[in-house]
Amino acid sequence: MKAQHWKVYMIHMTRGERGNPMKKPDEYSRQLESEMKRCAEALGAECIWMGYLAGQIPEDRIAVRDLCDLFRKIKADAVITHWQGSYHPRHVQTCRAVTQAVFRMPDESYRTGAGPYALPNLWFGENMEDEEGFVPEFYLDSTDVYEKWFEALKAYQLFREGVTGFPYQSFYAANTRLRGVDIGVKYAKALMHRKALIGDLSIRTFEVRLSEY
Amino acid sequence: MPRIGEREVELVPVLAVVGAHALDAELMGAKQPC
Question: Is the pTM of the predicted complex or chain greater than 0.95?
């Protein structure tokens, strides 16, 4: 999307500092702050950490307000987050909070520091931990930016070195190629809507752009 | 100038990508979920 001249924010609920079995959270949190910034910069995006500690995303009431306020401040026209069908509890929690925050954005009676903003389109990306019930519905041809994207992900030690033994590189290389095969290009990323909410969503800017991509 | 398809537009659309965490192998390798 950055290549299509969108302003892109990469927003992290937590830093994931408990996620490296080889390092203590204090040490790994500093490393992640540097890695997430380098990854975003390599993609031409801006990185924002919501300030929550790993495993401590607050209850929905608080997380929804924080996210809604941020979305209003940055004037988000489209939002992509985790699909709900995940085995990772924080991915599920993030999906739920982001979905509620998005729908609160135009609500004048829902007060945050920033004023109401038009309802953005909400999309769910494909993630190796969130595959339960994920159905690819829309595709973004990422062929032209694939190498840049994959190199940017290597800012993360866990992705670059595979120290946990989990095949991040293999999954995302194969997944991106597979989605490319789906639509007859070399590489692509898949997105989906939450079907039950389509009727409530304003299908506007983002979908128009997808059709013209 | 940003483009939508073939059209040039004056405003820059904004995309927010929200993840639970930067990169996290917390649940991998039979580690205890938190």
Answer: no
